[in-house]
Task: structure prediction
Amino acid sequence: MPDFTTRRTALLFVAGLAVSAIGPAVSARADGISVDHAWARASAGGATTGAAYVTLTGGAQPDTLVGVTTPAALTAEVHETLIENGVTKMRPAGSLAIPAGKVVTFAPGAYHVMLIGLKQPLAAGQSFPLTLTFAHAAPVTVDVHVQGLGHATPMEGHEHMRMQ
Result:
């Protein structure tokens, strides 16, 4: 059986392939920080919460993601998914360090933007703006593309925060 490092490397490779298959590489950039591959799943039924995922690439200097907003929900927060004693939990992450030149991937089962109080269901094929605010860089707004409910996600249930 491969060791953890080998399995994790293989899973991260697969995640990269899955993220690249999500759709066009929607990108926005400010002060060296780029935000790419912004996507969300369509809402199920009358759900009032949802999640959005992005890939952040740090600029020349380290920075910190300090907030997120969107007109699609009453509240947007960076959350992290943790497994403690075999129980999966989500909690607000607060601010999130973006190391210089490193990639931080938000994905199901890891860091994500929690959308609380959706103003309308997220429908496949639509998009909505998401603004990310940083401690030093200017805010970045990107269009989040909503994928269908059956959309394959990168390595669901595995660790997804990736720093390269």
Summary: Helices lie at 4-20. Confidence is low (pLDDT under 50) at residues 1-26, 152-164.
